[in-house]
Design brief:
alpha+beta; 6-stranded mixed sheet; globular; 6-stranded antiparallel sheet
């Protein structure tokens, strides 16, 4: 059964006062390689059906939500009845609001989008050439490429019929040699824009840098954070920017004495952090898709239109992620989360290479990993550097140094920036399983806190 037909079937079976149904159908293709050899490839398919049954009571609206994978035509009624039973046992929902109605996508009836191994037709031959070059240089390449295409159909008893086809691709490439280990990666919608030779050349250059080793102690260093590392920090900031938690005094975005810090200056440099469903190359769903309610999302908001939102505008906190419930409580505009993130600075910014060339002495990172929150009130994070920390002296990389554990708050870091580079698409290393659509600049921080030396290699 096609997913949109499953939606219609579930709605027809529903006995609830109101009902929302979400059907997701996904296909995934992947390549993996190790030691300069392709090892595996494959294609998989999956589906998920979510039924949201709403029961009107004297005290409000109770919601029952059931989500199951691999639901066939014979299993749809079981999901519907389970959602209704869940609603019957629940108290009225705090986030209850009128459903979005009567919106429809022109391509609702089209078959679900689908990916296949052919998406790698340009990547696989380029990888073969990269393997040969790496072998000749006594280096080894490891990594994987993954492409997923998910068609999501959202329908309701009020007439909502919205559909979104989301391509999500990434390629991660790791090189090993006598110069240590180096990593690079890219996010992509279709792999047509993935330049394997350029990625491999960058890794080879980094391994050459690693031939000279320098040991440095813990401390605060002028540090250039490349776009991937910036993405990991800014995504964590974004995930922590829920309006409800800020209003309740739980986060770094809570104002002393109550309320939120919207309107507060966070950075002296005019940086902007924004999301836009129509951002070129980072396109994502232009409406809310909520499979469950939480402090930051609401099943009642399914189908709400999304547009560009500036979370930080010219250095000032401009918005927090909102449901209709939190917007009512905070008195701020309704700004639901969007599935991409872009950071820009003043005047376009310099390239990473130019930033390095202007560095008298400092560190150039590759990426961050194992990022964990230490304190929500300041958004203090800790984590490790990985796959290359390089010493820059007089504008040139002179060698690789040991790894560090860092302790930094991305919010505090914004207030200490001295340079913002040019913005371009990047892949967050830590969060690539959850978030791939990002465009970030490199950042210069005069005193990045490398709290301890790490033995990770």
């Amino acid at each position: 059964m096609r997913p949109q037909d499953a939606v219609e079937r579930a709605l027809a079976l529903s006995r609830a006062d109101e009902c929302v149904v979400i059907a997701d159908e996904a296909s995934t293709a992947n390549l993996r390689w190790a030691g300069n050899t392709l090892t595996t490839n494959g294609v998989t398919r999956s589906n998920r059906l979510t039924v949201i049954a709403l029961r009107h009571t004297a005290g409000g609206v109770a919601a029952g939500v059931v989500s199951r994978s691999a639901v066939g035509a014979d299993g749809i009624e079981d999901v519907v009845r389970a959602a209704e039973a869940d609603a019957a046992g629940n108290e009225p929902a705090e986030d209850a609001a009128p459903l979005v109605t009567a919106a429809a996508s022109a391509n609702w009836d089209d078959d679900p989008a689908e990916t296949g191994i052919g998406v790698f037709e340009g990547v696989a031959p380029a990888l073969g050439e990269a393997f040969a070059a790496a072998g000749a240089a006594d280096q080894r390449l490891y990594g994987f490429a993954n492409h997923e295409l998910t068609s999501t159909f959202v329908g309701s008893s009020g007439g909502l019929r919205l559909r979104h086809d989301q391509p999500t691709g990434l390629l991660e490439l790791n090189a090993k040699g006598s110069g240590g280990s180096a990593w690079t990666g890219v996010g992509t919608a279709d792999f047509a824009d993935v330049d394997v030779p350029a990625l491999a050349a960058d890794l080879s250059r980094r391994l050459d840098w690693g031939e000279r080793r320098v040991d440095l102690p813990a401390g605060r260093y002028e540090t250039i954070l490349p776009p991937s590392a910036v993405a990991d920090l800014m995504i964590y900031l974004y995930w922590s920017a829920g309006a409800q938690d800020a209003q309740d005094g739980r986060t770094v975005f809570s104002a002393p004495g109550g309320g939120t810090r919207v309107g507060a200056k966070l950075a002296d440099l005019p940086v902007t952090l924004s999301s836009d469903p129509a951002a070129p190359g980072l396109e994502c769903a232009p409406f809310v898709i909520a499979h469950a309610s939480s402090r930051d999302s609401s099943v009642f908001d399914n189908g709400l239109a999304l547009g560009r939102t500036d979370w930080i505008a010219d250095g000032t906190l401009a918005a927090l992620t909102q449901t209709r419930l939190s917007a009512e409580r905070t008195g701020l505009p309704l700004t639901p989360a969007v599935d991409n993130l872009t950071m820009t600075g003043p005047d376009g910014g310099a390239s990473l290479e130019d930033m390095v060339a202007r560095t008298e002495r400092g560190l150039l990172l590759t990426c961050l990993w194992y990022i964990r929150e230490v304190d929500s009130q300041s958004l203090l994070l800790t984590g490790l550097t990985r796959d290359g920390v390089y010493l820059v002296e007089n504008g040139e990389v002179v060698g690789a140094v040991n790894n560090f554990r860092f302790n930094e708050s991305p919010v505090d870091l914004l207030s200490r920036l001295t340079e913002v580079g040019s913005t371009g698409p990047t892949l967050p290393r830590e969060w690539s399983d959850y978030f791939t659509r990002a465009a970030m600049p490199a950042l210069r921080v005069p005193d990045f806190n490398m709290s301890t030396v790490s033995q990770a290699s």
